[in-house]
Amino acid sequence: MTSACADYPFAAILGQEQMVLALLLTAVNPAIGGVVVRGQKGTAKSTAARALGALLPPGEDGGKAPFVTLPLGATEDMVIGSLDLEAAIANGEVRFQPGLLARAHGGVLYIDEVNLLDDHLVDGILGAAESGVNRVEREGQSRAHAARFVLVGTMNPEEGELRPQFLDRFGLAVAVEGAADPETRVALMRLREEFDRDGHAFAQRFAAQQQVLRQRLAQARRQLPEVSVPRRLLAFIAEICQRNHVAGHRADIVIERAARAHAAWNGRAEVTADDILAVAPMALLHRMRDANPDMPPPPPPPPPSDEDEPEEDEEDGQGDHKGQDDHTGQDEPPPPAEDESPQPPPASPPEDEVQAVGAPFPVRRLQNEGTDRMLRTGSGRRSSTRSATRQGRYVKSTPRRARDDLALDATIRAAAPHQRQRRQESPSPLAIHIRPGDIREKVRERRVGNLLLFAVDGSGSMGAQKRMSETKAAIMSLLMDAYQKRDRVAMVVFRGQSAQVVLPPTGSVERAARLLADLPVGGRTPLSSGLEETSKLLDQARRRDPHVLPLVLVLTDGRANAGLGDGPPHEEALRVAAALGQRHPQARFVVVDTEAPGMIRLELARKLALALGADYLGTGDLRAEDLISLAKEHQSW
User: Fold this and answer.
1) How many Cβ atoms are within 10 Å of 41's Cβ, its own excluded?
2) What is the bridge-based pairing of β-strands 588-593 and 383-387?
3) Which of 510, 468, 225, 486 is nearest to 342 (CA)?
4) CA-based diameter of the chain, in Å?
5) What would the pLDDT profile of 504-532 be if each residue is shown by its tens digit?
6) d(CA 143, CA 97)
7) How far is Cα 630 from Cα 493, in angstroms, rounded to an integer?
8) Where does the VWFA domain start and stop, copy by copy (predicted)?
């Protein structure tokens, strides 16, 4: 017998206490805004999400609560829903076509690899999860329906990050990793083997525990509206968020809602400091600037009134608060936020130098030149392109049917010349006779962001005349502009004997700033390794978005002196560069020569640019304004 017809019981999940608690709290109070689970493959992320659905109350039809998995290739209409305007025109009927959000009402909406989902879909889903209502507006028609569901997103950070503005809108976040204890790993294997051998018998073994969890969840949901938060603890929440420098007030609201859910889950009608301390790390993991949350001591309990004599158990209560202090510092440290920090640069020998980031500068307004004809998804403010979704500015119509995006005006114009003949052929009370050949769809334009990829020479020669400081200033200025334009930025650094992706594609200026500040210079120039690592990063970006148009800025003096093979390193680098340009024809390459000025110049970077098929900037052109202007020219690709 197999487990094909049985779901893995939630009660049988071993370990991953933070993930289990975050899922349960979101099930108690979906208004928390969902939970995103970050971790490597094989850490029970999907298993836990699917198992949670079995604990929820029955759906509106009395059956099992819905569990809806969002496919990566989902369209906006598939997710949000749409109005069948063809039926409205042809038959005089306004008919709503519900999407996945309507199907998920009362259950779980699960998004695997949420970091690979198109931004506009993530935006719509998070909006519905936060408000509990989904609104569909098409061609002057509007429809709203309840969309109260438990939102669970999982992601592997190695495959790319979720944009910070979307990550912040998830209520809770947890980082999971495989168990380090051998005994726990053995127990996990035995449980899984038992489940695979006979899933029904396995589920029956945990049936009693499952029922206890269902009843406890149902009771917590009923009790949630009655749970209160003392005013002094609201001030405690505000202090926690202030100490961790979170932007905005969403973290405060999420902690309050999650603490109320935690109190309801534990059968209490009033939130305590313990509830806040239990949920704060999950609300801060993806919002705080530091790696570990700074938890202030909880406020003391309110003093007894003059009419009441102090009792002995009040001292016990104070002892509990002391225990809370110990709890925050030792017993259960908050989960690490390793996924939020960029990878450190290669270890620096003592002779390496760390130059400060030069002063950033304002970026001139981007001027668009033409529109990209490729149909693209995504969002941003830099490049104008044809939209592959129903978002964007309506510019013209087409008879091609691909996205069910009806152009009502063009359809009526196409049908108008035939109205007299059609009324004679087929009398109808409809004012306009529409036939399939009249249907026109909208062609839309929108702006999207780009990928700016820096391949930075971190060898000793970059330290001459503070050139790394100037380069850092230019990169920082581009990052600030990229954030405003919603570009994604990545960085490869090559120095010593190898190259490393120190900044995966991201839109976070703060992460890049921390990286740039500590980026050292020193050692040899492994140019071939840097180019090969750049090629790998471009391959990953293209797998995520086949239509991505990267701009690659290679900042180096071209003096390759550490190769991959036994031949001359410089000749090897030219061969690798030629292969890189041929492998990625969709990318634009720019080589910025950082060779020091002087009477004798090798101009090896110029040869590199020729092999790569790249634009070339001489040493005198390495002014920040020129570098910014060159990046802007990539907008219309």
Assistant:
1) 10
2) unpaired
3) 510
4) 95
5) 887 666 677 777 777 888 888 899 999 99
6) 10
7) 21
8) 451-637
Find where tokens 């938060």 sit.
229
Pair of tokens at residue 253 = 């609201």
Instruction: Give the integer Cα–Cα distance in Å for 277 and 326.
Output: 11
Phi-psi region at 404: left, alpha or beta (left = phi > 0; alpha = psi -120 to 50)? left
Cβ 67 vs Cβ 111: under 8 Å = no
- Residue range 314-367, pLDDT digits in tens: 344 344 443 344 433 344 444 433 334 444 444 444 456 776 665 554 443 433
| Residues 114/154, Cβ–Cβ less than 8 Å | yes
Active site residue 376: no
Do the Cβ atoms of 430 and 92 come closer than 8 Å?
yes
Q: Which residue out of 38, 221, 250, 440 is catalytically annotated?
A: 250
Both structure tokens of 523: 């050692």
Q: Which two tokens stand for residue 89?
A: 């025109």
Q: Look at the block and give the residue holding tokens 């020219």.
A: 633
pTM given for the model: 0.58
CA dihedral sign, ordered 161, 165, 166, 168: positive
CA distance 200 to 3: 6
Beta bridge partners of 36: 153, 173
78 burial (CB, 10 Å; 0-12 / 13-18 / 19+) is middle
Residues 617 and 629: their CA atoms lie apart, in Å, by 12
Domains and CATH numbers, the chain: 10-223 (3.40.50.300), 227-339 (1.10.8.80), 342-367+448-636 (3.40.50.410), 386-447 (no CATH)
> What single DSSP character describes residue 535?
H
Q: How many Cα atoms sit within 13 Å of 173 on the Cβ side?
A: 26
Contact 134, 117 (CB under 8 A): no
Residue 171: name the closest of 322, 310, 18, 30 by CA: 30
Type of residue at 178: G
Given a contact cutoff of 8 angstroms between Cβ atoms, the answer to whether 240 and 282 are in contact is no
Instruction: Kindly state the tokens that stand for 130.
Output: 């936060």
